[in-house]
Amino acid sequence: MKPFIQIALASGHVYELPTDVIAQHRAAYYHGRFKDSEFPTMESALQDTREYFADSDEISDWAQNNMNPSDYMHAARLVRYTPDKDFVNAEWTAHEMPAMVGELDGEQIMSHPVEAVMASMAASKQLCNITVLNAADGQPFGAAVMILGGPNVVNSFITALQFTSDQLVGLQGLGEQLPQQTH
Which H or E run contains 11? Predict the structure, then answer.
């Protein structure tokens, strides 16, 4: 049984989850139904399931026909978003290794759903952490920003922060911007 399965949705979101989540579900079903005969222990049902799931098509077949998304989405993580693909139906593929993600440039950051960006950034050890300090009246009076990543990541986040700052200043009608400081 391959250890990972990916689910490509019509929206372009691609989720990945450990195949063991689906195997545990099937094993629990068979153990519960046949514990007095074929599968007296959960381990025996799990061993049978792992052998049965050697055929990767059986993994997706079990999940699609016997599980609800709530049974596996707790273990799923978004690994890719491909909006220019036209998926007619979800595509399930089994994999030996987890999906690899790379750095996203400014164009990609701004054109992907936030959950895809966050998953990709975390998986590739890129980070932008912003702490906003608010006064007693709730108005911001300062912010601290930490950005980890390559030059394109840092530049992309700085551009996004400037854009956000410009929007907030415009929305609040403050009419002035804080002086730029870099260290």
Answer: none
